[in-house]
Fold these 4 entries.
Entry 1:
Amino acid sequence: MSESSMRIETKLVHAGEPLPRIAGAVEMPIFQSATYEYGGEGSYHDVRYLRTNNTPSQLALHAKLAALEGSQAALVTASGMAAISTTLLTVLSAGDHLLAQSCLYGGTHDLLTRDFANFALAVDFIDADRRDGWQAQLRPNTRAIYVEAMTNPLLQVADLNAVVEFARAHGLVSIIDNTFASPINFRPIEAGFDLSIHSATKYLNGHADIVAGAVAGGAELIERIRHKANHLGGSLDPHAAFLLGRGLKTLALRVRYQNDSALRIARFLEGHPAVARVNYAGLETHPRHARARSLFAGFGGVLSFELKGPASGADEFARKVRIPIVAPSLGGVHTLLTRPATTSHAGLAREDRLRLGIGDALLRLSVGIEATEDLLEDFEEALR
């Protein structure tokens, strides 16, 4: 059986792994070395060195991630923000313009609004749900369009097919942050996107013990991004690479369980009298449920909700639950609870947060792999 014909569960375990196995090791060894013997390489970017992103651990991950995404190539980085910033600084040059979805992860939003001007880069935020407004924001110097598969923390689902079509019609590089969906639920390259980005800290690793990033796409474009990364220095270290490779092997098992558990919890919360609103694309009441069903194999393990009453009620609920850990981040084996106004989107001005719909009382829940029944009982008691 060829690697390309393998199902994704098999690719997670076997794709990219060196054959023959190194000294017979079943697991990819940790190559704890930054420096390698010179082999006659003619290019700076080909010299084997940890920062040039071409050591054995990194190359194995590149091959595995490309196989999972259905892309020609992939690159791992030192963090999700390293993947985002390096990618954008590769496809954009001074004087260029970016179209970006209006509701983005706080770190990405800060990069675009606070740092881009220093590089003479311009950005306009679009309503990614309304294609009819994009044309008016297009400029002669627009080079790319950037969206998220599911937005953080409101779980909005953009018209992703329209984004791909719009980008092709206007010669733009289409970029998507696929962290919330993961390749189990959505593979953007197969859907026509040029680049798929992940905070590999989240679902890809899944154990909250490393920070990493990844980007997948066409070979020529990924090579350009690698060259930029070589200069900016956001390279993944060997031990983190080992942990990411190990975590990837259980990705399908974790994500599918989290899909099912999150949907049950979202339905429970939606029906509870103390809950004012639940944001989860798996709910039939979600405004883009039909779109999400057509795009995704599953709706992910993250949801957000608001309790009735003041923001202090959200803090009280967080104090009362026993299983969820009150902490930022998402996508791991632990269930995590956070208030975006004080964590992921604390950098936004309050008026900007409220305009986007991120209220002070909003809670984001990243469902782990604990027993769903235990989580439901915990929530019921805390809400009582």
Entry 2:
Amino acid sequence: MGSYNKMVSYQEIYDLLRKEKYSEQLQQLPDNFLKEVSIYLNEKKSIVDKDQGSLFSDTQKITRKQFENAVSLVNELLAVRGKKVLNLSFTAAQTGVSKRDTETLLNHEKELFENVVRKLEENKAAVTRTLEGEGEQEKDLKNVLVRFKQSVPKFLDLEGKEIGPFNSGDVANIPKEITQILLEEGKVSKIEEED
């Protein structure tokens, strides 16, 4: 949409919201849209604040209402676009996305898009590893299921987190390194060895 030199108007914000709501695709916003909206809102707010003492000023009442409505319109526009960005992120993580699909994103929307796609891809990879059995093997290597033979007061694990206290007969999933120490001291037995 070329350069955008004139200030945005209330009617333009309204029209942009209407177009965004009734289209499945993200709409192209004017260049520097958020900056222009910020200038517009700040100018309206300064008029409202300046005429605060004028109780019967019709101009002040109209400006205040227009300011409040404009804030609502902008928030709704950004919310509608936010939902579309999330949907686009999901599609991109599943099937890939072309550069053309992201051309209409504002800077903060691009950042959201990239972060969400990355997290969705990481999540997909983790689920795939779990389905292929890798996740369970890793978990098995890190922890051991044990039964306590005697009471043990609470203690710190290797990461400094409190574990316990445990009573005789309690069953717990304990990090492998700590299990080894407790086994040597005769305080626990591995559950699998009991069967």
Entry 3:
Amino acid sequence: MKLLTSFWKKINEYVQIFIGIVLASIGLKAFLLPNGFLDGGATGIAILLQEEFNWNISFFLILVSIPFLIIGWFTVSRKIFFKSILSIIGLAVFIYFENFKSITEDKLLIAIFGGLFLGAGIGLTIKNGAVLDGSEILGLYINEKYGVSIGKTILIFNVFLFSITAFLLSVEIAMYSILTYLVTSVVIDFIIKGFENYVGVMIVSKKSKKIQELLVNEVNTGITVYSGKKGIGSTGSQENMDIIHIIINRIDIRKTYNLIDLIDDKAFVTEFDVNHVKGGIRRRSLIK
């Protein structure tokens, strides 16, 4: 039964990734591409190259993603790496066969709704353990190697991109593209509640030992175990139980809950925001 539940949860992840691909492709084909607008990151580079060379953007999406994926091979886990490859190829294929017509000619609406759909797609993909835009992988690499935050890395990357856009295309397109990027970023943050933020999770379960082993081996996180004296709930009174406390990256949330449910689907789990973390072991499932 638990294996079946785990299987359906995996299917659900891939279904949500597919929905993310569809949303991102709508943002590109129905809003940004017909009007020459850019987004940030690898997607923005692909759009810029399409504007310059007039080739199909699907080709450029894959081509531009290759350097980022090479970095990802040495940076992210194999699971995230292969899911990201499937996501990027899926987006390229979907855009190639999609035939959406431009919905509006209003530049403000194009920037806002293009960014909204694209951000929703990227955010939903990240939330389910994959990367749709290679710039996030670059951000992870710089963060791990030099300690610069992911957000700052992507911001600096896009400053150069939009500067090139202003030079090659026009200042107006660059300005609208910046607006698109800002909307995209806000929507991504809204969906995944902070790509590089940490959260705390407290777990109370009768099968604490098995859950600890899975968390250490599968999520690669440090664990603090508190000794609980007594608890009273719907199942009655319990004494001398272990309380698991972990700090993980938000992108690991779904994986963590899946692992807990695999061992004890009746475990009491509390999730809370963490504003600052210093010291200890804080490893992402993204990082090997």
Entry 4:
Amino acid sequence: MPFTAQAEDLGRLTRDARRRALSPQVGIDFSSNDYLGLARSPLLAAAARGALDRGVPTGSGGSRLLRGNDPEHEALEAYAATLYGCERALFFSSGFAANATLFSSLPQRGDLVVHDELIHASAHEGLRIGRAERVAVAHNNPDAFDTAIRRWRAGGGAGRVWIAVESLYSMDGDRAPLDALMTIAAGHDAVLLIDEAHATGVFGPDGRGLAAHLEGRANVITLRTCGKALGVEGALVCGPAVVADFLVNRGRGFIFSTAPSPLMAAVARAALGLMHSAAQLREALWSRIRHAETVFAPLGATVTGSQILPLIVGDDAPAMALAARVQAAGFDVRAIRPPTVTQGTARLRITITNNASLEQITQLAGLLAELRQSA
């Protein structure tokens, strides 16, 4: 059998209750990142139809450096740069591709990347194939970042320092201390890279994220995914013009990838416009978040002040079993296990979106109370 090692690995995952499988979308949405409920929005559907009617192609036909550079890509990037107050924005096919390209190409040999221990797997992928030194520090601990940089300098480190965080962490729902990290970056002449994936559209003025007040600074780069609150797909790297130009020239994940669909670029631009004026959608979401905090807190869910409420179960198998029972009752809640989260913190990751009503939030809380009491 040619795949013996792979079959044995899958067997180990099964025994450890960590084997993954694709499952359909069933039940009321408490697991997606479609926070504003735009993914099925008739407004975005109309934008897609309008783009098709004016001749926007569905496929790009090649990389951006060949024939794949469409006016819709450039229009989206120009609009995003204006919206976020940065010099340039560069559109990628996904947040994973953008992060992997950023971390594998921007930090140079002799540099140091200091990153939060809970930063996304896509950043780890870029760091794995990059040339810079890297060190993980305690989650959301500014002093740990400062100490790591000072220790590296004392040991002879002379290159550029890069500080990498998420503004809102996807599994815990807590926020990075961005202002403190900005002060540390300024003190060490460092660059601050901020992944705004889960904050875009939900936080900040006009949904511009938790890092909106830092945009436009010469030492700040942000990543804003389009596949979560914006309801489409792709990601925008926002920052100084030299960063975008360098990625076009040295970012292998950009250079050697077929360009994203021009149609999706057009719809993403429409989604950014909606986000900018979607105060009612955000108000509806925050009403749901506040209600969810009230009804889930007594169950032991972590109140995070965000749309992500983790309910820690502990071991993998009980978390999977609880999720299965919730799903059988018509609520799409997923269990998250290591290595996505740390050992012993398997959880239900409950996300609050505009796809579930206040009544349905209450119903889910009642069901979880009942299931945990009978466990």
